[in-house]
């Protein structure tokens, strides 16, 4: 079994371009996952953050094990899930690595607050979740990260940010 196929049985199916082409039709909600503490910060934009259960309050997000965020998730065990508003597209772009921003530089240009766990939360996010890592399950190239929501930081309702057919789009409230 190769490194790229952890716990995944090889089987026939669509090739990668066909799969990626199919996934473009799914409407993705855009979130920023913040990871690390102190000077050791990174994070990534994701469309894979969703609710897992309400009781207990759990979320899950799929994180590429080759990303700069993955080792920080393992080491610090806390993360923030920040829903993005339409006006946060530049934040989303920085956290995708677009323009070359890396590590703590991805936090430039926006205001952040430090949550109880130490996770960084976007000050004016529609909502942000302060999470501890409950479990990381390796599958193929990614880890399925299960987070326990320790606190919820709510701001005001705003237009949403979605990703669809390869582009960001604002969603009217
Ligand atoms: C709209 C969008 C959604 C993304 N969703 C995910 C995701 O769910 N999981 C993931 O690991 N990477 C996702 N990515 C890619 C990461 O944001 C990107 O690879 C990461 O920020 C760069 O990793 P680095 O920190 O190693 O530079 C997404 C990118 C975009 C533009």
Structure, described:
The protein has a single domain, classed as Pnp Oxidase, Chain A (Roll). Helix content is 13%, strand content 43%. It contains three helices and twelve strands; from the N terminus they run αβββββαβαββββββ. A hairpin with a 4-residue loop joins strand 4 and strand 5. The N and C termini lie far apart (47 Å). The model has no long low-confidence stretch (mean pLDDT 95). The structure holds flavin mononucleotide. Flavin mononucleotide binds at residues 30, 42, 44-48, 62-64, 67-69, 95-97, 142, 163.
SSE inventory with pairings:
Layout: H1 16-23, E1 28-29, E2 31-37, E3 40-46, E4 50-53, E5 58-64, H2 69-76, E6 78-83, H3 89-94, E7 112-114, E8 120-122, E9 127-139, E10 142-154, E11 160-164, E12 167-171
Antiparallel strand pairs: 1-11, 2-3, 2-6, 4-5, 5-10, 6-9, 7-8, 9-10, 11-12
Name a few traits of the molecule.
173 residues, mainly beta, Pnp Oxidase, Chain A, seven-stranded antiparallel β-sheet, three-stranded antiparallel β-sheet, 3 helices, binds flavin mononucleotide
How much beta, percentage-wise?
35-45%
- Assigned CATH class: Mainly Beta
Strand arrangement, largest sheet? 3-2-6-9-10-5-4
What fold name stands as the CATH topology? Pnp Oxidase, Chain A
Architecture per CATH nomenclature, i.e. the level-2 architecture: Roll
Count, helices: 3
Bound heterogens, unique:
flavin mononucleotide
| Uncertain segments | none
Count of domains:
1
Percent helix range: 10-25%
The description of the largest β-sheet is: 7 strands, antiparallel
According to CATH, the homologous superfamily is Electron Transport, Fmn-binding Protein, Chain A
Radius of gyration equals 16 Å
Order of helices and strands: HEEEEEHEHEEEEEE
Mean pLDDT: 95
Strand tally is: 12
C-alpha end-to-end distance: 47 Å
Category from helices, strands and their pairing: mainly beta
